């Protein structure tokens, strides 16, 4: 049976693609470790791949790669959200599927690669609701702790809880100040000159293209802010763009806003292609809300 090949470098990707004949359908799955639906997509692709017997030359080749680790490849396929599946043949993109709907993925693959064999007793898993993981302030996945509730004879823990509440209140106050440090604030991985993920790089390029002056915060430099923002803003991923102290969203949401309203950044633009970082006094630093 066929398997899914994990691609870990640009050279591996280009080498694999160039080794395939022009008749082979290539299914390229883009994922990230923080998006829960990507695990569902991994199961779907593995199940589908197992239904295709190995052939020479192959009818279909299944590839999987981390969209953030390989930003150049992600950008070349215009990946703005994950999971994202690209089907291509002879170097040409023939179809894309966004999300982890098993029936849509299977239909797309079979439409271009033909039907595989028996999917086994379990078949394909049902579609997964794209519900973000719930994390606490330290980044740990939440668990059901009801069994650990204190009994009537256990020591009182109110002082500790009050202290924790005070810390949370202080962090939330800081986050509220951070999102208003500049009229347009970008919370990103890395800095505008050295983005550390493909999505952050694309959003920086988009703001520059639209002539937007913006402040930024490198969430990789302050884990307290990184984890706190996920809960306080109820938005589990980065980059995040804030305008006027209000959350717009990530790269895909910003693109949707511009599609529906090309003048979305009009009040913050200094001229097409002239955008970039705001003045130093409008920048946010890990140490303080502004510098």
Main β sheet profile: 5 strands, mixed
What is the helix content? 25-40%
- Into which percentage range does the β-strand content fall? 15-25%
So what's the overall shape?
elongated
Order of helices and strands: EHEHEHEEHHEEEHEHEEHE
State the secondary-structure class. Answer: alpha/beta
Notes on the protein architecture:
The protein has 291 residues and is α/β, with parallel strands linked by helices. The protein has eight helices and twelve strands. The chain has helices at residues 10-19, 37-50, 71-76, 102-113, 158-178, 198-209, 223-232, 251-260; strands spanning 4-7, 25-31, 60-66, 84-89, 92-98, 184-188, 190-191, 194-195, 213-218, 240-243, 246-249, 276-277. Strands 1-3-2-4-5 form a five-stranded mixed β-sheet, sandwiched between helices. A five-stranded mixed β-sheet has the order 11-10-6-9-12. A two-stranded antiparallel ribbon has the order 7-8. Strand 4 and strand 5 (92-98) form a beta hairpin. The longest helix has 21 residues, at 158-178. The protein is elongated, with a radius of gyration of 23 Å. The N and C termini lie far apart (58 Å). The model is unreliable at 119-135, 141-150, 155-162 and 278-291 (pLDDT under 50).
């Amino acid at each position: 049976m066929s398997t899914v090949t994990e691609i870990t470098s640009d050279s591996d990707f280009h080498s694999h693609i160039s080794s395939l004949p022009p008749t082979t359908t290539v299914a390229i799955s883009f994922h990230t470790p923080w998006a829960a639906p990507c695990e569902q997509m991994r199961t779907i692709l593995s199940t589908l791949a197992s239904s295709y017997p190995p052939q020479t030359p192959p009818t279909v080749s299944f590839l999987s790669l981390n969209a953030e680790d390989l930003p150049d490849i992600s950008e070349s396929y215009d990946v703005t959200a994950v999971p994202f599946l690209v089907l291509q043949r002879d170097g040409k993109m023939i179809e894309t599927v966004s999300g982890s709907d098993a029936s849509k993925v299977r239909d797309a693959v079979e439409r271009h690669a033909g039907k595989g064999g028996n999917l086994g007793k379990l078949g394909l898993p049902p579609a997964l609701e794209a519900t973000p993981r719930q994390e606490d302030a330290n980044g740990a996945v939440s668990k059901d702790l009801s069994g650990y509730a204190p009994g009537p004879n256990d020591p009182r823990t109110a002082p500790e809880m009050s202290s924790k509440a005070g810390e949370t209140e202080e962090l939330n106050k800081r986050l509220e100040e951070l999102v208003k440090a500049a009229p347009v604030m970008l919370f990103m991985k890395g800095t505008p000159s050295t983005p550390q993920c493909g999505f952050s790089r694309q959003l920086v390029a988009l703001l520059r293209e639209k002539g937007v002056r913006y402040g930024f915060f490198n969430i990789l430099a302050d884990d307290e802010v990184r984890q706190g923002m996920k809960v306080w803003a109820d938005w589990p991923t980065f980059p995040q763009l804030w305008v006027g102290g209000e959350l717009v969203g990530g790269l895909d949401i910003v693109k949707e806003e511009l599609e529906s309203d090309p003048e979305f950044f009009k009040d913050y633009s200094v001229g097409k292609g002239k955008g970039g970082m705001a003045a130093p006094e409008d920048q946010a630093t890990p140490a303080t809300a502004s510098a």
